[in-house]
Amino acid sequence: MKKGILIFLSLLGAAAVSAQQPADLVISPVKVIDIKTGKITPNQAIVVRHDTILAVTGVQQAKRYKVANTFDGGNQYAMPGLWDNHMHFGGGDTLAGENKNFLPLYLAHGITTIRDCSADISAAVLKWREAVNNGSLQGPTIFTSGPKLEGYKSVWLGDIEIGTTAELHQALDSLQRIHVDFVKITDNTMKPDLYLEAVKAARQRGMVISGHVPYALTLQQVTDAGLSSVEHLSYVWKAGVKDEAALSRRIAGGEIKGRDISRYILTHFDTAAALKAYRHMAARGTAVTPTLSLGQILAYFDQDDHAHDPYLAYIGKGLQKTYEMRVKRVMKDDSTAIAYRKEIYEKESAILPLLQKAGVKIMAGTDAGYLNSFDYPGIGLHRELALMVRFGLTPLQALQASVINSPVFLHKKDYGALAAGKKADILLLSANPLEDIHNTEKISAVVTKGRLLDRAALDQLLNKVKAANAQ
């Protein structure tokens, strides 16, 4: 009888083992940060299968999974991988290889998703997007606009220049054929009426629209047309004057231009008017990507010219040459102009808490990549988050701007949290980023699409980029 019971129990145990759900990776134990609420749950295990999180559960409960690999989380802090919601590939086909080196830089800094806000090497970017998605290329997930829409004789290379309704629809057709993730529309030579028409047409096609805003238009006009996001704070700063419509008419008529526009905004900015404009923006669902980093670099270039930044070892020589245009421009400023550019930068950036208060979705993006001087892919996002906190957001709000608001903007529901069914893009930190935003740089490991890269593997990525640029 006893022998029969033992056999039965043995068979029962074997059945339980065989019934265990398979998993590829378990990270345990960790303190899981809920970026939506700020709650931290200790003694957790994250269970991963392929590129998806199977479960976030207690350490003991994780033992019910049949696991191929385990990683000691060391009671460190786990959160979703970061997003850089505004970067640029570019500089021409001859610099494609240097641009491709951005991909390991992003992963090495815990950034598992990037949004390319137009490139002049879109054919290469689209190939990289596909290769990353199918696992044949290691890098962050890429969402891209492809070439942006502009007017005739734009200063930007590789854009699609349009001047008529027919050309607008041909351009949108071409973008949909290459399956862009969103549309980028900018204001260099785009006529204001065609700009509004472009936003409305893209919206009617169900496309997400990101853009610069012609100063001849008001923020209300572009949000009512359906613009999904405003890129850069200067455009929403303008909306804080007491009568933006009057200012826009004067700009359209050529009465006020250049630096005089900023001087006008500086003099006439009104907090009550700004909040009213920003609340309308929020009600229409228009987000903003502040891109504080580049402005800070250029405003304070007299104090730090970045010529000896150690990070330049990771940036190709060809890409560094694309920095020269902006450098030459700021180097021409005299002491009065230097003081003025700093004042404008500080005043623009100070509206960040007003946007947060009004309920506008703020997205973390750097403007890093080619052309934008010393605004670095990878480390740049950590600087952007720190600047967001400096100008009035809490560390949690800054993290939400990267991890939650960015995927919401692109209607991607399988990101934004460490939870069952979400993408297995995970950042493991040795210190709490809610206490100090600079702790996002204390990276112990990154999981991208379910594959774990420990600190040694991340350092190897950095070393390979450095070695490639040294040749």
UniProtKB/TrEMBL annotation:
Q: Which residues form a coiled coil?
A: none
- Protein name per Swiss-Prot or TrEMBL: Amidohydrolase family protein
Give the Amidohydrolase-related domain ranges: 77-452
What InterPro entries does UniProt report for this protein, alphabetically?
Amidohydro-rel, Metal-dep_hydrolase_composite, Metal_Hydrolase, Metallo-dep_Hydrolase
Species assigned in the record: Chitinophaga oryzae
Q: Which Pfam families match?
A: Amidohydro_1
Organism placement in taxonomy: Bacteria, Pseudomonadati, Bacteroidota, Chitinophagia, Chitinophagales
Tell me the first and last residues of the signal peptide: 1-19
Q: What parts of the sequence cross the membrane?
A: none
Alphabetic keyword roster: Signal
**Gene3D superfamilies assigned:** Amidohydrolase, Urease, subunit C, domain 1
